[in-house]
Automatic annotation (TrEMBL):
Cofactor annotation: heme
Biased composition (Basic and acidic residues): 13-25
Domain of life: Bacteria
Ranges where the record places region Disordered: 1-40
Name of this chain's protein: Catalase
Stored PANTHER family: CATALASE, CATALASE-B
Segments forming domain Catalase core: 41-429
First-level EC class: oxidoreductase
InterPro entries in UniProt: Catalase (IPR018028), Catalase_AS (IPR024708), Catalase_clade2 (IPR024712), Catalase_clade2_helical (IPR043156), Catalase_core (IPR011614), Catalase_haem_BS (IPR002226), Catalase_immune_responsive (IPR010582), Catalase_large_C (IPR041399)
Catalytic activity, EC: 1.11.1.6
Pfam families, A to Z: Catalase, Catalase-rel, Catalase_C
Length: 704
């Protein structure tokens, strides 16, 4: 009875939370290093009298074994680390909610998709793939985009990436892909970089990776911020409604902040200036109330639509262009709370594509099917016990009950005699324990299966490896195409084996002979013959929606931008105040950068503190830069390499630069030439802060 009551209470608490949007986040009970009275204690609750000195035989004597406080503290410290994720080890995460715009009851019975306006708590972890947990934030790498929805019918994990396709078609090849991509087995380098022999050796031998390679070499793998990238579920999934009807679906996350990337040279310099650049950016945005937001978009289709496409929707190396199948925006994802503890939440969160709720189901995509096994399995190795679901970040926020028992680190205390089902020890729901729910429980979509032999075979419909690679490359803006060509030249220039370079370029001839020619020229090698293609590529209709530059989502507003303003003694006080006001109005952040942080004396005699010192705040960490120097300030900074570099890099990275007239000598020394993106410190400067000026690029670097 008591059990039933407790269950009812839990259920009604859940009811109360429906649609209110408040208190969506269950707080983890805080366990500080002290007891309720503020005393420091051991893990056994014994108050610690001295946390500075070990117990010794005399002031200069040996340490005594009986010092249990010492032994416990060191013992625990020695075991603080857990294995990092085999992939996606480096991640940053935040809490938030998903809010539904309209009921999707027509296509899915999933509880979170029923009531317009309802909010579901979420936890989102972004990651790089190849680097270790301590690696930098801005390598050229795919970004993970994993969302855990704590729905009222259990957890749904949408474990996606910021690229809508994948390298391989079959999960059996995943260990090979990752071994090839990560640091080389014998030498342990390079870390978090694909620019090495083994990666490109594998890629050259796996033509199915070519489409993904085009994305990986594009600006998509250099996102400016985690908040300016798209997310994709990649595979085709199914939605299933209350009548049991199935609709295929592809999931998209569209960033409200727009799409923005860095330039390679910039990404490399950010890695040195601030290895935690994206983690810090996510955290500080949320701290200052600039909550990152994405819209959930669905591409919905049926078997008849799928059968007309010239590619297979079960093939994860293919996408369906938005122009062919428009995206229906059905809700928004808002990240509004930082984690309280990085380890307990970001590190211990365990995602699994097999976590689906009634109304969402899998397709037969062979990559997805393999993933369904891998994630649960890896968590056991990483988190050490089959009870990892009990960790607060992983536990569902709805009641859950079954007869799974015991195991290492069991923290639940299940009551009652029966730990098996069926049992007749009590009336269902009482002492006898939980029972099946044939109507509301998860049932798999009853897909009719073909009567075919068991075999290891790749379907013919998966054989075209080049048409979509061509579609992507040719859909890009000219500047982006140049970035792709240059990225491949860069990466292959790091490849020491000539036959590997040559094989990759031979594959790319199938994608676009002009691209291959540009790359061959950039590498200083003859253009090889096209590699034999299983299926000759066809020209699909181009999809401008795939672009960042000049694409539908290209960032052009200053909202959310971080602008660096270089000031020094004598800087015009009115100008600083006006820029601060304008930035605030544009919802941008203005950071003052000065040779000394403590105090800068402005033109009116007032003193102001800078937010960052020049040497530690190069322009790569800002979206746009201003140079508000007086004539004397300019003169003294003309001898400062960091100040010259500040302007030079901003120009080289095609950013908007605003400068006072008196700063002109500094611009001249930095090689900043007049163009549309170089302005005075008036209104245009702040308005353009979110824009890049790619027309400038041919002036500052040779692209392939
Ligand atoms: Fe995976 C983690 C995304 C294919 C096996 N994967 C992982 C994470 C993301 C993805 C975002 C990090 C989750 C987190 O933040 O904790 N993975 C993908 C996508 C794929 C994909 C979008 C293709 C469409 N993955 C894939 C395959 C396999 C795995 C084919 C294995 C057969 N992935 C894993 C894993 C990881 C993982 C080994 C490592 C850590 C973890 O699971 O929790 O199980």
């Amino acid at each position: 009875m008591a059990q039933q009551k407790a269950k009812k209470n839990a259920a009604s608490k859940i009811e109360d939370r429906r649609g209110t949007g408040d208190e969506l986040h269950q707080q983890v009970p805080s366990q500080g290093p002290h007891d309720a009275q503020g005393h420091l204690t051991t893990n056994q609750g014994i108050r610690v009298a001295d946390n500075q000195n070990q117990l010794k035989a005399g002031p200069r004597g040996p340490v005594l074994l009986e010092d249990f406080a010492l032994r416990e503290k060191i013992f625990h410290f020695d075991h603080e680390r857990i294995p990092e994720r085999i992939v996606h080890a480096r991640g940053s995460a935040a809490h938030g909610y998903f809010e539904l715009y309209e009921s999707l009851a027509d296509v899915s019975r999933a509880d979170l998709f029923q009531r317009a306006g309802e909010k579901t708590p979420v936890f989102v972890r972004f990651s790089t793939v190849a680097g270790g947990a301590g690696s930098v934030d801005t390598p050229r790498d795919v970004r993970g985009f994993a969302v855990k929805f704590y729905t009222q019918e259990g957890n749904w994990d949408l474990v996606g990436n910021n690229i809508p396709v994948f390298f391989i078609q079959d999960a059996l090849k995943f260990p090979d892909l990752i071994h090839a991509a990560k640091m080389e087995a014998d030498r342990g380098y390079p870390q978090s970089a694909t620019a090495h022999d083994t990666f490109w050796d594998f890629i050259g031998l796996m033509p199915e990776a070519t489409h993904m390679i085009m994305w990986a070499m594009s600006d998509r793998t250099l996102p400016r911020s985690l908040t300016t990238m798209e997310g994709f579920g990649v595979h085709t999934f199914r939605l299933v409604n209350a009548k049991g009807q199935s609709t295929f679906v592809k999931f998209h996350w569209k960033p409200k902040a727009g799409l923005a990337s860095t330039i390679w040279d910039e990404a490399v310099k950010i890695a040195g200036a601030d290895p935690d650049f994206q983690r810090r950016d996510l955290f500080t945005r949320i701290e200052r109330g600039d909550f990152p937001e994405w819209e959930l978009g669905l591409q919905l289709f049926d078997e008849a639509f799928a059968s007309k496409l010239p590619y297979d929707v079960l093939d994860p190396t293919k996408l369906i262009p938005e122009e062919i199948l428009p995206i229906r925006k059905v809700g928004r994802l808002v990240l509004d709370r930082n984690v309280d503890n990085f380890f307990a939440e970001t590190e211990q969160v365990a995602f699994c594509p097999a976590n689906v709720v009634p109304g969402i189901d899998f397709s037969n995509d062979p990559l997805l099917q393999g993933r369904l096994f891998s994630y649960l399995d890896t968590q056991k190795s990483r988190l050490g016990t089959a009870n990892f679901h009990q960790l607060p970040i992983n536990a569902p926020k709805c009641p859950y009950a079954n007869f799974q028992r015991d195991g290492m680190m069991q923290t639940a205390v299940p009551k009652g005699r029966a730990n098996y089902e069926p049992n007749s020890l009590g009336v269902a729901g009482e002492a006898g324990g939980p029972r099946e729910c044939p109507t509301t429980g998860f049932t798999s979509y009853a897909e009719p299966l073909a009567d075919e032999p068991k075999q290891r075979i790749r379907p013919e419909s998966f054989a075209d490896h080049y048409s979509q690679a061509r579609l992507f490359y040719r859909s890009l803006a000219a500047a982006e195409q140049a970035h792709v060509a240059s990225a491949v030249v860069f990466e292959l220039s790091k490849v020491t084996l000539e036959h590997v370079r040559s094989r990759v370029v031979a594959n790319l001839v199938n994608v676009d002979p002009d691209l291959a020619q540009r790359i061959a020229a950039g590498l200083g090698m003859p253009l090889p013959e096209a590699s034999p293609a299983q299926v000759l590529p066809i020209d699909l209709e181009l999809s401008p929606a795939l672009r960042i530059i000049e694409g539908p989502l290209e960032k052009d507003s200053s909202k959310g931008c971080v602008i660096g303003l270089l000031i020094s003694d004598g800087t015009d006080a009115k100008e600083v105040a006006a820029l601060q006001k304008a930035a605030q109005k544009a919802c941008a952040t203005l950071m003052l950068v000065a040779p000394k942080v403590g105090s800068v004396k402005l033109s009116d005699g007032s003193a102001i503190q800078a937010d960052a010192q020049l040497a530690g705040a190069p322009s790569v960490i800002f979206d746009a830069v201003g140079i508000a120097l007086s004539a004397s300030g300019t003169q003294s900074l003309l001898k400062e390499a960091a100040a010259i570099q500040f302007a030079m890099d901003a120009f080289g990275h095609c950013k908007t630069i605003g400068a006072s007239q008196a700063a002109q000598p500094l611009l001249d020394k930095a090689g900043v030439e007049p163009d549309d993106g170089v302005t005075d410190l008036g209104a245009k400067f702040i308005q353009q802060a979110g824009q890049r000026h790619f027309d400038r690029e041919p002036k500052v670097r040779t692209l392939a």
